[in-house]
Specification:
This protein is α+β, with helices and mostly antiparallel strands. It is built from eight helices and nine strands. The strands form two sheets. It has a five-stranded antiparallel beta sheet. The termini are far apart.
Length: about 300
Amino acid sequence: MQFFLDILNIESSKSFETFNDILGYDLLSSVENYSLKIIDIGVLLIIFGITLVVLKLLKRIIENPPKKQLEQEEFKRRHSIYLLVKYFVWVISIVIMLDSVGIKVSVLLAGSAALLVGVGMGLQNIFADFVSGVFLLFEGTIKVKEIIEVDGIIGQVEEINLRNSKLITRENVTIIIPNSKFVTEKVINWSHNHGSVRFMVDIGVAYGSDVEEVIEILQSCMANMQEIEQSPQPFVRFKNFGDSSLDFELIFWTRQAFTVDNLKSNLRIEIYKSLAKHNISIPFPQRDLHIISKTDA
C-alpha cells in the first residue's frame, strides 16, 4: 500500500511541477528585459472579471429604483453618476492590470508626456462639454421638455447627455448642441420658472375708432382662445398714437410657448374678423403729398 502511495505522490509532484511550468511559461521570451507569463494573462482576466462584477453591482445600486419608477431627469442624474463612477473604476482597473504585467504607469506617462499634451489640447473642448454636462444634470438649470433659446435657436430640450444635448426646433429638426454652449453663452429658458410664458401681439386701428370698444373686442378675442391662460389675466394696453393708426398691445400668457407662432396667427385671424364685424378698420400707412408750384417772376 505504501508503495502505491509513494507512486501517487511522485506523480502528483510531477503534475504540480508541470502545472507551474505552464503558468510560468514566458510568452515573450524573445523580448529582452520583459516577460509576459500565462499566469499574468490569468491575473488580467481575473481583474477584468472583478471590474465587470463591481460595475454591475454599482449600476444596480446607483440606478435603483428601476428606470420606470423614476422621472426622466432623476434617471439622467443617476445615470450620469454611474458613468462617472464607471470611468473612475476603469481607470483604476487598467492601472492595476498594467502594473500586474510589469508595466509601470509612471514610466509610461513620463515617456509619453509630449503625446499626452497634444492629446489634451485636442480633447479640451470635449472635456469642457463633459464637465458642462455634469453641471447641467446636477444643477437642473435646463431640463427635458423645457423651451430654450441658445445661439439664436429656439427649441425644446429632448435629451441631456454628458457631452451634448438634443433640441427639437419648431420646424421639427433635431439639433445637437455641445453642453459647453449652455454654460459659457447666454441662454434664454422660456419655461424655467413657470409653466406659462408671456407674449404680446400688436394691432393698429384707424383714427376715430372708439378706444374702449376696441379694448373690449380685443379682450373678448383673447378670452375665446383656449390656449391663452386666464390666470394671470390677459389684458390690452393702449400703446401709442401711431403715424397712421391707434396702436394697441395684447399681453397674454400661454403654456404653448413652443407653438406660440400658431397661436398668434389664430389670434390675429380672430381679431381681424371681430374688428370687421364691428366696422372697425385696420389702416395702412398713408402719406399726404403736397405739391407746391413756383410761378415764374
